[in-house]
Amino acid sequence: ETVREADDDVTVTATADADGAIDEANEENNLLTVEKTVVHNGYRGMRWTDGEDIATAATYDVRGDLLWSAGDSAYLSAGTGWTEYAVHWTADDLAVPANATIEGARLYVPYTWDKGPVFPENVTLTFNGVMVDQDAFYEDEKMWGTSYPYGMTVYDVTYDFDADGNTATLTNTLPGGGNVSVRGMVLAVVYDDGVTAPHTVIMNEGFDLLYGGESQGTTPEQATAYAPFTTPLDTVNVRNAALITVAPGAGPTEGDLLFNDEVVEDAWNYAGTSQIGVDERDVTSFLLPSENLAGFRSDGDWMEAAAAFLVVEYPVPAGSIAVVSTPTGAEVWLDGEDTGQVTDCFLEDVPVGEHVVTLKLDGYANASTTVTVAEGEMAEAVLELTALTGSLNVTSIPDGAAILVDSADTGEVTNATVDGIGVGNHNVTLRKDGYVDAVVGVTIEYNETATLHLDLIEAVGSIAVTSTPNGAAIWLDGENTGRTTDATLTGIPAGEHTVTVRKTGYADATATVTVEHGETAPVHFGLVPPTGNIAVTSAPDGAWIFLDGTETGEVTNATLTNVPPGEHTVRLELEGYLDAEVKRNAFGRQVDSFETDLPILGVEGGQARAVFIRGPYVTRVEPNVEVLATYADKIVMVRQGHLLGAAFHPELTDDRRVQRYFLDMVKAATQ
Predict the structure, then answer these.
(1) Tell me, what DSSP letter sits at residue 666?
(2) φ and ψ of 271, to 5 deg
(3) DSSP labels for 455-512?
(4) Can you give the residue ranges of every domain in the chain?
(5) What does the DSSP 8-state code read for residue 223?
(6) Pairing of strands 634-640, 626-631
(7) Is the dihedral of CA 615, 620, 626, 627 positive or negative?
(8) How far apart are CA 24 and CA 210, in angstroms?
């Protein structure tokens, strides 16, 4: 095989009966020589035929995105003899956000088998009724055998695009029409709404007829077209990257898509009813910082490479907003959307740009302000809310009832008008002693006066009074009711009351009872006999007090209360004092004083002289107390350990035996 350059002139000679096997009268006429010019195989990619790649036609950096659609376009055959071809796009086909700016809109019209030729000279196009000039024209041809041009015209319709819907009408001006088939149309739009994340949109265009296979004199490698994207990209911060490729004639499931080192087999399918293969896929994982390369490869498939769009999304530059209001607690809305937060708060990750902060709080007028957010900085939205108020005129029978709104005392009493009540629904309570609280809902409207009248109901309840024993007279708040226990007092005004019961032979009993409206308050008394008090003193004080043999827990000086009527025995105990009880002046008055020889256990001679002057005697001793002397069957001298007690005066005589006994006792205790 000899490889020659395109446009080379080649002489081709054909020889019949080259071996001279046939005898002929004229052997000179077996030769035929022709001159031919070498042409490219148009089924190969442009890199093999000295053509151009699918090259970058436009690049956009927007706070927006790219949208594309084939609308209702369909394949239109040359055999129809067509003269006019219309395609429509609805607003939903290309859903451009409201208030967005159209940065670019390009209309792609690929055609095939142009016998006219019709393109580009014999077609015109109107877009939304406006005649549009061709912005670019691309074509390719097989160049051998039966060969007709294939290609694509591109129209810039940026200024005529309508977000509500669009119509493109292609007119064939070739006499007789027909003579070319149209694959369909694709409309690609780039918008900027100032809100969407930043996008870099790279739009490559061209046209390359591809058919890979030995029968076509090509290989898949040769039948490959390339779309290089040379724009540098910040791959560190890329959030997403999408590749949209347009391959007329590729479908269904035809052709291999190349992107950098990745291969996707059978990538393209027709868009709608057109014969334009379109593939859109995520290539984020395969993206390079620069020199990204997309490829269209035919492996036995007839297809054309026409356009490739690389759309790279970056994070939204963001700042924050501090939102403060007086009063706090207002719902925070950002650009018409509820943030779910209430003031005071911080809104994080707010996109850079202008935003409207709106605060909503029941009873207050909505308040809005515009803030500008810069990247990495905090903007402030400080708003003072204005209360929406109305008034309420309240009357009651009887009047003089306190007026409460939402449980808060207004300081007003009926009949009165309460001003400055927030708009909306409120609960109004009227409260007056002796009456049931009256509660009703009212609606306050802005700058209006609502009216409310209530008839109050007297608040009464009952008291069930019982006692043990029963039959006690019942007194209520100091007045005799004429009833005796057990009984229920009815019609009692709500509030606190004092109930007293009285019964002969028992102490009065009193209790405070709270009566609630419609309720019966029970109160029970356990009656006890009346009691008295005993004031107990001693010198020295601090002695434990026993009553009738039982320790009271009290020490002198103290008063024993609730002591039943009758005789009682009081006994005192104090460390260092005898455990004995005495009766004072037991031997009479001072004129009854006397002197006698008194038998005493333990003293020398068994007795001693004793003088009694208003003397007491001991009426009771504990077992640990020793009786040393008695007189007339009365105990007059005792000993408890180192303590000695006598009812007489041993010091008034010359007899010292009692003193010597005491001294001997002290000596024994100290040894």
Answers:
(1) H
(2) -85, 115
(3) E--B-EEEEEEEEES---EEEETTEEEEEESSEEEEEEESEEEEEEEE-TTS--EEEE
(4) 46-313, 318-387, 391-458, 460-526, 532-577, 581-669
(5) S
(6) antiparallel
(7) positive
(8) 48
Edge-first strand order for the sheet with 402-405 is: 408-413, 402-405, 424-431, 438-444
Distance CA 125, CA 170 (A): 5
- Tally of residues, the chain: 671
Report the CATH fold assignment for 581-669.
Rossmann fold (3.40.50)
Topology agreement, domain 460-526 and domain 581-669:
no
Helix or strand run (H / E) with residue 127: strand 123-127
Architecture of the domain defined by 460-526: Sandwich (2.60)
Q: How confident is the model at residue 180 (pLDDT cuts 50, 70, 90)?
A: very high
Closest CA to 243 of 311, 189, 157: 311
In sequence order, what are the beta bridge partners of 37? Answer: 9
State pLDDT tens for residues 443-499.
999 999 999 999 999 999 999 999 999 999 999 999 999 999 999 999 999 999 999
AA letter at 355: H
Q: Amino acid identity, residue 664?
A: D
3-class SS of residue 614: coil
Report the pLDDT value the prediction gives residue 6, as an integer from 0 to 100: 67
pLDDT band of 39, cuts 50, 70, 90: low
Angle at Cα 660 formed by Cα 591 and Cα 656, nearest 5°?
40
The CB-side HSE value for 186 (13 A sphere, CA atoms) comes to 29
Are 95 and 226 in contact by the 8 Å Cβ rule? The answer is no
> Topology of 318-387 in CATH?
Immunoglobulin-like (2.60.40)
Asked if residue 3 has pLDDT above 70, the reply is no
pLDDT(671) > 80: no
- Least confidently predicted of 97-106, 509-518, 577-586, 639-648: 577-586
Give the bridge partners for 107, in sequence order.
155, 187
Is 169's pLDDT higher than 90? yes
CB distance 447 to 453 below 8 Å: no
Cα separation, 273 vs 74, whole angstroms: 5
pTM assigned to the model: 0.55
CATH code reported for the domain at 391-458: 2.60.40.1120
Q: Give the model confidence (pLDDT) of 279-311 as tens digits.
A: 999 999 999 999 999 999 998 888 999 999 999
DSSP class of 315: P
Based on the number of CB atoms within 10 Å of its own CB, is 349 exposed (0-12), middle (13-18) or buried (19 or more)?
exposed
Question: What's 158-204 look like in SS3?
Answer: HHHCCCCEEEEEEEECCCCCCCCEECCCEEEEEEECCCCCCEEEEEE
Residue 277 banded pLDDT, cuts 50, 70, 90 = very high
Angle subtended at Cα 188 by Cα 183 and Cα 189, rounded to the nearest 5 degrees: 160
> How distant is the alpha carbon of residue 408 from its chain centre?
30
